[in-house]
């Protein structure tokens, strides 16, 4: 995992054991880059505007994504179901003691 000068982590090309680096370590720029890389270029700006970093992303509820980011309903549902929820699940599985 490569740390950039601004403190963010290079998530585009980094995969550890078939999984992305722990989202809890992501800066706001990493969250934005993740959503841009997954096809949500327009919606990624909402995460930037709301200053959502990795720790905040992992705390988001379905309602937060659907109503708190001012994203259209269709993309918001996809972002939560196919990205936020799986990242939360991955984080919990890899950080269980």
Automatic annotation (TrEMBL):
<dbReference type="InterPro" id="IPR013761">
    <property type="entry name" value="SAM/pointed_sf"/>
</dbReference>
<dbReference type="InterPro" id="IPR001660">
    <property type="entry name" value="SAM"/>
</dbReference>
<dbReference type="Pfam" id="PF00536">
    <property type="entry name" value="SAM_1"/>
</dbReference>
<feature type="domain" description="SAM">
    <location>
        <begin position="26"/>
        <end position="74"/>
    </location>
</feature>
<protein>
    <recommendedName>
        <fullName>SAM domain-containing protein</fullName>
    </recommendedName>
</protein>
<dbReference type="InterPro" id="IPR050548">
    <property type="entry name" value="PcG_chromatin_remod_factors"/>
</dbReference>
């Amino acid at each position: 995992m490569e740390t950039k000068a601004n403190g963010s982590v290079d998530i585009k090309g980094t995969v550890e054991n078939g999984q992305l680096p722990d989202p809890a370590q992501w800066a706001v720029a990493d969250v934005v880059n993740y959503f841009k890389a997954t096809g949500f270029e327009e919606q990624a700006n909402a995460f930037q505007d709301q200053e959502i970093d990795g720790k905040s992303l992992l705390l988001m509820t379905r309602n937060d994504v659907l109503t708190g980011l001012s994203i259209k309903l269709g993309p918001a549902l996809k972002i939560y179901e196919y990205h936020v929820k799986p990242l939360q699940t991955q984080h919990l599985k890899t950080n269980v003691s």
